[in-house]
Design a protein that fits this description.
By secondary structure, this protein is mostly beta strands. The protein has 2 domains: 67 residues, no CATH class; 196 residues, Fumarylacetoacetate hydrolase, domain 2 (Alpha-Beta Complex), CATH 3.90.850. The protein contains 5 helices and 20 strands. The structure holds magnesium ion (MG).
Length: 276
Amino acid sequence: MSTLYSKNLQSVANTGKINHSFMKIVRFSIDDKVKHGILKGKTIQAIEDKPYRYIKPVDQHYKLSDVTLLPPSAPSKIVALGLNYHSHAEELQAPLPDAPLIFLKPSTAVIGPEDNIVYPPSSGRVDYEGELAVVIKKPSWRVSIEDAPDYVLGYTCFNDVTARDLQYADKQWTRAKSFDTFAAIGPCIETELDPGNVDLETYLNGELKQKGNTSDLIFSIPKLINFTSHVMTLLPGDIITTGTPSGIGPMYPGDKVEIKIKLIGTLRNYVVKNDR
Ligand code: MG
């Protein structure tokens, strides 16, 4: 038994509260209430409060089929990476960056599992970008690389939806990356994951389009937390999405897009036409 696991059992025995290892955390709505819980197969056990300071299961159990899964966190901001996979740099024939290239996506872009990605009328090319995202656990300011893992609640799937034509047309990426529905997150936050060796796949209408592993990252996740937290304070629930591997491509209304990370699950969304 690992030291970490022993520590968890000890923690449960002493306080009834468990720390952040070995679980899938979901955020969901039922009867017009928003709750957090731990996903166990096809059931959810609710927890007291949000999962950031502590995780304490309570005696409320729900069937997964009876609830609506929401984005697993409600971030104040999303920090995204411009170019962070060797394979993607090769695909673009772009030189490797000397430092992480970060940009922001607004909280208003966030959608959850099974939600619609809305094609904006001003774009003729909207792309998927399958990514592994980090969910921040506590306020993070000038965090060292060594301490970075202590600031992580867990990991989730992310689709960094991008209006590619507008990205090329603009010098800044804000417009291309920020439309409502352009930040799909979920389905859960996995707290126990080795972020240095995660397989990631993107499927469009069931066809494999992207296949990467985080061992191909140019800047590691601890480095990204270190770098970003020297720029801005990261808050509980904030997200750093770590960049996309090779194989980016377009989606069109009617398409189904899925980001799959085996240890987390599948983030599934549907592309629809803007009807307004
Ligand atoms: Mg991206």
